[in-house]
Every structure is written in structure tokens, then in C-alpha cells.
Amino acid sequence: MPQERLVPVPAGEARTERTRTSAAALRSELDRRGATGGALDLFTEDAHARRSRAVFADELGPERRLGVVALPPTGYVADEWFRSSAGVKTTLVEFFAWAFEAF
N or C end of the chain, less CB within 10 A? Predict the structure, then answer.
């Protein structure tokens, strides 16, 4: 991707709801630039992808199409997440966080 198309959007400190804080910061930046509608791709680690997409879609609104790219984890093999403590912890934490977000 050309460097000029990348725009950092710092979200600031957040003790809780870091994903929502990041999504809100992005929405604010897009609104500030007058960028209504269009499509965006969200890049995040695989176990976090489903919840991240839901949170970003909620914050960005239905007028913006959102894709998600689930990057492979760095601490374990994705297809064998159940064989490592890092994989089990990440998967369970993300599952419960997704369930909390869904309700």
C-alpha cells in the first residue's frame, strides 16, 4: 500500500474498551475529514477479528462497508490453538469478550 494512503489515528489511553475507543477515534477522524460512506479494511489478529469487526461496524455505522483481515497470531499456531496456553487463553478471552459485546 502506498505510504501516503496510510493515516495514523491515535486513540489515546483506554483502560477498558480499547477496541471501541480505537473505533471511535477512527470514526471521529473520518468525520473530521468529511469521509462519509466508502469501504475500509480492518487488520487485526485472528482471534480478535470477529469482535473487532462487530465493534468497528457498530461505531462506524451502516454507511461504511467494513472488511476484516485476520492476521495469524504470533504466540501460537492458529490451527492448533488448543495445544498452547497462549492459544487457549486468547481464544477463551476473545470468545467471552465477543459474547459480552453481543449482549
Answer: C
Residue with cell 465493534: 55
- Report yes or no on whether pTM surpasses 0.85: no
The residue behind cell 495445544 is 83
Cell numbers of 53, please? 469487526
Long-range contacts, stretch 26-34, CB < 8 angstroms, 24+ apart = 26/56, 26/59, 26/60, 27/59, 27/60, 27/61, 30/60, 30/64
- CA distance linking residue 19 with residue 25, whole number of Å: 10
The Cα 75–Cα 81 span in angstroms is: 9
pLDDT, one tens digit per residue, over 15-31 is 888 999 999 999 999 99
pLDDT tens digits along 34-53 = 988 889 999 998 888 999 99
